[in-house]
Design brief:
single chain
Length: 516
C-alpha cells in the first residue's frame, strides 16, 4: 500500500507541476518586464521578511506531524483527533501573533528597503499588505492538509490545487499583460489560495469522518509532551528561517532591490523545480514515517536496506539537479529573459552546490524529521544560521553574490552534519563512518560528472536548437554515469527490487489488457 500510494502521488504531482512550471515561467517573465523594475525585488524581499515571521510557528506542524505517524500506524482515532485539534488551535494563535508582528514590522520597513532612488512607498506597503494577507490566510485554513500528507494521500490536495493554481497563473498573466496593477496581481493569488484551502477543508470532512474536534487547552500540549519537543525544535525553526531567508535581505540592504530581481529569476526556476520535487519526495517522506515505526521492518533488516537505497536515490537526484543547473541555467536565462539578466558563473556554481547539498540529504532529512530528539542537533542549526548571516555580510563586499551563496553552502553543510549525526545515533546505529565515506565519494563523482557534462554541452554552441541538444545531454550523461557507477552496488539493491516489481506490475496489467 505504501508503494502504491507513493506512485499515485508521483503521477498526480508530476502532471500538476509540469503545467504550473510552464505557466510560472511565463508569469515571471511578464512580472519582470511589465511591472516597475523594482516590484519583483520588493516582492522577493518582503516574502523573506514574512519567512522570518514563520518563526512564530515554533515548529508545531513538524512536531505534531512526526507524532501523528505513530498514531496513524496504531490507528488510534482518539489520539489522532486530539493532535489535529491541537494543530488547528495552535495555528490560529500563531496567525494572530503573526498579524501583530506584521503591524509592528511595518514601521521598520524603510530600514530594510534600500534603493538607489527613493522607493515608491505606496507600492512597497501595498505589496507588504498583500503578502501579509496571503500569509495569514494560510495559517487559518491550511491545517486540514496535514492528515493527507501523513496518510500518503497528498494527491487529493494536489488535484484540488491544480485547478486553482492554473486559474491563478492565467489570471496573473492577463493582469500583467493588460492591467499591470500590483494590487490585482497579488490579490488574485490570495483569493484562489483561500478558495483552494476551503475546498480541501470540505473534502477533509468527507475523507476522515471518524475524526472529531476535541476541546483542548495548554495542559494538553504539556501532557502529550509537545512543549518538551517545541522547546528544542524552536531552535531548529529559528535557525532554519534565518538560514533560508537572510540572503535576499543581505543583498537588498547591501546592493539594492534591483539585484534581487535578477537573482529572483534564477530562484524562480529553482523554486518551480523544488515544488515539483518536494511534492514527489514528500510522498516518500510519509512512507518513511511509517517505516520508522514499523517494528517488523526494523527487526528483519529491511529498514536499513531501505535507508541506503533512498540515500543513493537522493544522491542521484541531487547530482542530476546540480549538473542540470550548472549546464542549463545560463543558456536558459539567456533565451528566457535576455543577456542582460545573466549573473556571474561563480554565483551559478555555488548555487548548484547548495542545491546538491539540499537534495543529496533530502531523504536523510525525512528520517531526521520523524525521529524527534531535536535537542541533539540544535547547536548545529544555531551555528548554521549564525555563520550564514555573518559570512554573507563579510563576503558580499569582496566576492559579491558568489560570496553570499558560498556562505549559504557552508551553513548548509553544518545543518547536514547535525542531521546525519542524529540519524546515525538513533536509527542507523554504527553507520556514521560509512555514511561519511559515501558522501566524500559522491562529491568526487559529482565534480567528475559535472565537468564531463559541461564540456560536452560547450560543443553544442548557442541558440534554441543548441539548448535542446544540451537538455538531451543533461538528461542522459549524469544519469547514465551514476547508473554505471552505482547501479550494481548493494546500496542499489532496494531500488533494483522496487524497479523490477514495478516493471512486473505494469507488464502484468498490459498483458491483462491485451487479453480482454
Amino acid at each position: 500500500m505504501r508503494t502504491k500510494r507513493t506512485l499515485i502521488n508521483l503521477v498526480y504531482t508530476l502532471g500538476q507541476s509540469l503545467v504550473l512550471l510552464l505557466l510560472g515561467l511565463v508569469t515571471r517573465k511578464l512580472f519582470v518586464t511589465n511591472f516597475d523594475a523594482f516590484v519583483p525585488g520588493y516582492s522577493d524581499t518582503i516574502n523573506n521578511i514574512f519567512n522570518f515571521f514563520s518563526i512564530a510557528e515554533f515548529g508545531v506542524g513538524s512536531v505534531i506531524s512526526y507524532r501523528l505517524y505513530e498514531q496513524i500506524a496504531a490507528k488510534d482515532i482518539d489520539r489522532i483527533s486530539r493532535y489535529m485539534s491541537l494543530y488547528k488551535w495552535a495555528y490560529r494563535a500563531i496567525g494572530a501573533f503573526i498579524a501583530l508582528m506584521a503591524v509592528i514590522c511595518a514601521f521598520f520597513l524603510p530600514l530594510l528597503v534600500v534603493q538607489e532612488q527613493e522607493p515608491d512607498w505606496l507600492m512597497v506597503y501595498g505589496i507588504y499588505a498583500m503578502t501579509a494577507l496571503s500569509t495569514l490566510s494560510s495559517y487559518f485554513l491550511v491545517t486540514r492538509r496535514l492528515m493527507y500528507t501523513c496518510t500518503q494521500q497528498g494527491y487529493v490536495c494536489t488535484k484540488i490545487d491544480l485547478g486553482f493554481n492554473v486559474a491563478t497563473s492565467l489570471a496573473k498573466i492577463a493582469i500583467a499583460l493588460w492591467i499591470p496593477n500590483y494590487f490585482l496581481y497579488f490579490g488574485i493569488q490570495i483569493l484562489f489560495n483561500t478558495l483552494a484551502n476551503v475546498v480541501v477543508a470540505r473534502r477533509y470532512r468527507k475523507d476522515f469522518p471518524e475524526l472529531y474536534d476535541v476541546k483542548v487547552s495548554l495542559s494538553d500540549f504539556k501532557d502529550l509532551g509537545i512543549f518538551h519537543d517545541l522547546r528544542y525544535y524552536l531552535v531548529h525553526k529559528l535557525s532554519n528561517t534565518i538560514y533560508g531567508s537572510s540572503d535576499n535581505i543581505v543583498i537588498t540592504s547591501m546592493r539594492g532591490a534591483a539585484l534581487v530581481t535578477q537573482t529572483g529569476n534564477y530562484s524562480t526556476i529553482s523554486t518551480s523545480v523544488n515544488n515539483i520535487c518536494n511534492k514527489i519526495l514528500d510522498s516518500f517522506a510519509a512512507a518513511i514515517g511509517s517505516i520508522v515505526y514499523d517494528r517488523d521492518a526494523e527487526a528483519d533488516g529491511h529498514a536499513k536496506a531501505v535507508f541506503w537505497g533512498l540515500d543513493l536515490f537522493s544522491y542521484c537526484f541531487g547530482s542530476f539537479v546540480a549538473v542540470a543547473y550548472f549546464c542549463l541555467f545560463q543558456p536558459f536565462i539567456r533565451l528566457w529573459m535576455g543577456e542582460s539578466y545573466l549573473l556571474p558563473m561563480a554565483y551559478v556554481f555555488w548555487f548548484c552546490m547548495n542545491e546538491y547539498i539540499g537534495w543529496n540529504h533530502r531523504m536523510l532529512g525525512s528520517y531526521r524529521a520523524v525521529l524527534g530528539h531535536f535537542e541533539e542537533d540544535q547547536w548545529f542549526m544555531v551555528a548554521s544560521a549564525a555563520s550564514n548571516v555573518l559570512l554573507s555580510f563579510a563576503l558580499v563586499i569582496p566576492f559579491g553574490l558568489a560570496g553570499v551563496v558560498g556562505a549559504t553552502v557552508f551553513a548548509h553543510c553544518l545543518m547536514w552534519i547535525g542531521r546525519a549525526r542524529v540519524v546515525c545515533r538513533h536509527y542507523m546505529k554504527g553507520c556514521g563512518w560509512r555514511y561519511l565515506g559515501l558522501q566524500l565519494l559522491h562529491w568526487v563523482t559529482l565534480f567528475a560528472i559535472m565537468f564531463l557534462t559541461a564540456r560536452l554541452c560547450e560543443l553544442c554552441g548557442q541558440g534554441i536548437l543548441a539548448f535542446i541538444g544540451k537538455v538531451c545531454l543533461v538528461a542522459v550523461v549524469p544519469n547514465l554515469c551514476n547508473l554505471l557507477l552505482y547501479g550494481w552496488t548493494s546500496d542499489a539493491a532496494y531500488l533494483r527490487g522496487r524497479g523490477l516489481d514495478l516493471v512486473r506490475k505494469l507488464s502484468g496489467r498490459l498483458h491483462k489488457g491485451e487479453n480482454q
